[in-house]
Amino acid sequence: MKSISSPRSASTDWILSNLMFFSLMIGYASCARSSFALAADTEPMVSLAGGVPPQAPTLLAGADPASAGNLLQMRIYLELRDKAAARQMNEDLHNSASSNYHKWLNPQKFDEMFGPLQTTYDEISAWLQSQGFSVTAIRRDRRDIEFSGTVAQADQAFHVQILGMRDGKHYGITSDPMIPTRFQGLILGVMGLDNLSAVSPASTISPI
Q: Residue range 156-172: average pLDDT?
């Protein structure tokens, strides 16, 4: 007598096919996320000189890392598009031998000629948001970008360690912040990584 094997139902095949499909998609998504994170972590960075207050090494000697969850209000200042041309224009405006003598520019005209490009402004804003920051103010003249984020986000994005003073109020960095190399020459400075401007070394609190 010939044995008869029962065939799998169409619904069983459909379920198995879908399980395989979703497994593959989950694996692909995991790889994509890992690749994206790796690309973000390995983007070439360059140091932005002048970001450390001169009093910081003294004030922050022996300080501990600031609380990772503390919220910071920060600002990035952008360079003029053509500083040399802007400087020359300023000289010409005050030079009686120049054809531009006393041909004053209104702010809008100056920004059109020398201000940061909109594409530059948008790219820097997009990078800040990709680091988890919230862009809180957009400037018409595109000279600066206000943004907020936590100490942990700032540490990671700018490759610094924000340290807190013993008074629990003041904080700062002892190494220059870093920015993506593609923004070199476009970003003038980063403000808000410290609040040491009103603190002098003599005002530090000694440990008990």
A: 95
